[in-house]
Every structure is written in structure tokens, then in C-alpha cells.
Amino acid sequence: RRAYSRTSRKRRMKRADPIVLSAPSGTGKTTLAHRLIEESDNCVFSLSITTRTPRQGEQHGLDYFFVDGDRFDQMIESGDLAEWAYVHGGRYGTPKKALNDAADLGQHVVLDIDVQGALQIRDAIPDAKLIFVLPPSVDVLLERLRIRGTEESEVLGLRLRSALEELEVALDFDYIIINEHLSDCVQEIRDIIEGKETVGLNSEAIESIEVCRAGITSILERD
Ligand code: ADP
Ligand code: 5GP
Q1: Could you give phi then psi for residue 63, rounded to 5 degrees?
Q2: Measured in angstroms, how far is the CA atom of residue 113 from the centroid of ligand 2?
Q3: 88 to each of 13, 92, 135, 142, how far by Cα in Å?
Q4: Which of 17, 104, 141, 145 has the fewest CB atoms inside 10 Å of its own CB, making it the most exposed?
Q5: Is 155's C-beta closer than 6 angstroms to any atom of ligand 2?
Q6: Whose CA is nearest to atom 13 of ligand 1?
Q7: pTM for the full predicted model
Q8: CB under 8 Å to 43, separation ≥6 — which residues?
Q9: Helix (H) / strand (E) containing 127
Q10: Measuring from atom 23 of ligand 1, which residue has the nearest CA?
Q11: How confident is the model at residue 39 (pLDDT cuts 50, 70, 90)?
């Protein structure tokens, strides 16, 4: 009887699709994801596990679950991860629990993950909304990375090279948005969640990808 009432409650609840945010490192997707969750009462953050070492100020259970390689292997073997990938030399993954907990609460789960993970989520959950975030320009991207100050110049090159690979996949996403002003961008994501934003990929978005790729390529060739 309990099981029956639980099922009917779930059926009555509006389905809340997962929202996947991907972007070149430094674009601001972590900032966007956190702002979105602060301002929305129907979104929760999916906390990932990673084998990378914490940056200064990062906390276990708040920014990531920081785990060692053995624990990561264990979680893969137990089928506990909805997706996982190697990103910038570390391993990152989304615990299935984060998705299940959100579904039980009727909340949208917001995933801040790389493009490989995003495509795995789409395979597993075809209704997931995939949003690719672009910086307003490559100069702004470099400035944001510099202000964040978490990258050595060697790692910066690595991140820009990954950005080029990520931009290759951007056209497979459902939406492309530009993170110029934070509040406008958060509002755009909220419109997508509410189904108000219907235009996914337009010619402007496609051109923005090309401009970004050209900018990054010229920096990598210069250095
Ligand atoms: P990502 O998660 O994409 O690597 P972060 O969220 O860490 O990027 O953001 C990189 C830096 O850019 C941070 O210092 C953040 O405060 C800043 N930032 C993010 N979005 C904006 C914005 N719209 N305008 C100005 N600065 C931003
Ligand atoms: P950072 O080390 O800067 O926190 O994150 C590096 C990259 O890993 C970012 O693109 C971030 O979105 C991605 N990432 C974070 N968590 C996950 C995850 O659970 N799965 C995947 N595939 N990528 C993730």
C-alpha cells in the first residue's frame, strides 16, 4: 500500500528533466550553476566525484567528493556512476544517487560536466536538456581564467586545447548560450528550464563557436 501511494505521488509530480551545462574551462559554468540553484526552488546541484586534488578553498562534499583512484574504480564497478570521463588528466563522474534523489523530489538536477559526460547523460536520459555555454570572447575567457588564478600557464595551454575539442561537440547540444552578464545568462537558463526558450541553435550561435575556435587556435599557435 505504501508503495502504491508513493508511485501515485510520483505520477502526480511534474517531471523535471536534468539540465546539463558544459563549457570551456573558465567560461563560468560553475558560477552559473550555483547562481541558478540559489535563485530557483526547483533545481538541485549534482555533486560530482573526482580524483583531482582540491584547489585552495575547495571542500569535500561541497565542491566535489574528492576520492582516490581505488574508490573511483569501485564506484564504476558497482554501477554507481551515471557517467564518467577523463578531463584534464583527472577522472570525474556523476553519482546516480544525485539523479535519483532529484527525481524523487521532482527537482531538476543541474550537472556541471564536460562534453563527454554530457553526451553519456543524453544517451541514458534522452529528455535531458544539454546547454553549451560560450564566453563572450576569447579575451574574456583568458581574463576569467587569470582572475580565477587556479591555473599554471602550462595547465592553461592544456585547458585551451581541451576547449577546442569541446567546441567541436557544441553543435550536438540542444542550446548554445553566451555568458556575458551573469544574471542575463542565469535568466536564459531558467527560460530554457521553463520551456520559454524555444530557439536552440541559431546561426548567431554557430558563428560564435567559430569565432571562439579561431581565437583559441591563434593563441595556441602564437605561444
Ligand atoms: P568554469 O566552471 O566554467 O571553469 P568558473 O565558474 O570557475 O568557470 O568561472 C571562472 C571565473 O569567471 C570566476 O572567477 C568567475 O567568478 C568569473 N565569472 C563567471 N561568470 C562571469 C560573468 N558573467 N561575468 C564576469 N565574471 C564571471
Ligand atoms: P574543474 O577541475 O575545473 O572543477 O573541472 C574540470 C572539468 O570537469 C569541467 O569541464 C567540469 O565541468 C568537468 N566535470 C566536473 N564534474 C564532472 C563529472 O561528474 N563528469 C564529467 N564528465 N565532467 C565533470
Answers
A1: -95, -45
A2: 4
A3: 39, 10, 19, 17
A4: 104
A5: no
A6: 148
A7: 0.91
A8: 19, 36, 37, 107, 108, 109, 110, 193
A9: none
A10: 182
A11: very high
For a mutational test of ligand 1's pocket, the pick from 37, 45, 63, 144, i.e. the residue with the most ligand atoms closer than 8 A to its C-beta, is 144
Half-sphere exposure of 35 (CA within 13 A, CB side): 17
Cα–Cα distance for residue pair 52/143, rounded to 1 Å: 24
The 8-class DSSP code of residue 170 comes to G
Is the CB of 213 inside a 6 Å radius of any atom of ligand 1? no
Are the C-beta atoms of 64 and 49 separated by less than 8 Å?
yes
Written as one letter, the residue type at 37 is I
Name the burial class of residue 28, with classes exposed (0-12), middle (13-18) and buried (19+) by CB atoms within 10 angstroms of its CB.
Answer: buried
pLDDT, tens digit (0-9, with 9 covering 90-100), for 185-216: 999 999 999 988 766 677 888 899 999 999 99
Report the separation in Å between the CA atom of 118 and the middle of ligand 2, taken as the mean of its atom positions. 10
49 forms bridges with which residues in the sheet?
65, 93
Burial (0-12, 13-18, 19+ Cβ within 10 Å), 80: middle
